[in-house]
Design a protein that fits this description.
The protein is mainly alpha-helical. The chain is built from eight helices and no strands. α3 runs antiparallel to α4, α3 runs parallel beside α5 and α3 crosses α7. It is globular and about 45 Å long.
């Protein structure tokens, strides 16, 4: 527990509330690095993959597709200056909820699971969009879509590669717990 708290304290400068809105972001590399550079984004996107891996079947691609599609829509809204309420709180909640769903090995039908992850994708995409300055938008979008898909794939293949479903569930619980700690100290 002490190590978890130490890790959370070290990561505190990167809480979910780190998106300040546009100005300096452009190009493929910046777009690719944006999701990877934020703990909240990494954990949420890997959790989508982990959950898809636990659900298996069509969920393997449907959860990622729902998240990615809604993320692009959210990007468009954010880049276009359309505000959404509680984006940062929703991003934080996405990690907690997705981690808890993985921890519980929740078995929702795709008709419930896909719209849920799509809402989270919309919020994450909106944060990306508000960071966009205009120049290099196409490269930026391509970069964050590729990085997000890679993080989903890491979670999915990680869930499949780990012999014990319990280990995957513990990882989900750790994600949720870590984000709760980060939220408490932020």
């Amino acid at each position: 527990m002490r190590r978890l708290l130490t890790l959370a304290a070290l990561l505190a400068p990167m809480p979910a509330l780190a998106h300040e809105g546009g100005a300096h972001v452009h190009g493929f590399l910046t777009g690719f690095l944006h999701p990877i550079g934020g703990l909240d984004h990494v954990l949420a996107m890997v959790a989508v993959g982990l959950w898809a891996g636990l659900l298996a079947g069509r969920a393997s691609w449907a959860l990622a597709a729902g998240f990615l599609g809604a993320m692009v829509l959210g990007f468009g809204l954010g880049a276009g200056g359309v505000g959404l309420p509680m984006v940062e709180a929703g991003i934080l909640a996405s990690v907690i909820i997705l981690g808890a769903l993985v921890a519980a090995a929740a078995r929702f039908p795709l008709a419930v699971a896909v719209p849920l992850v799509a809402v989270f994708g919309l919020l994450h995409g909106h944060a990306h969009g508000t960071e966009m300055a205009g120049a290099g938008a196409l490269g930026y979008v391509a970069g964050f879509i590729l990085a997000t898909a890679a993080l989903h794939a890491a979670g999915l293949f990680g869930a499949r590669a780990i012999a014990s479903q319990m280990v995957v569930r513990v990882a989900g619980g750790a994600m949720a717990a870590l984000m709760l700690v980060v939220a408490a100290i932020a």
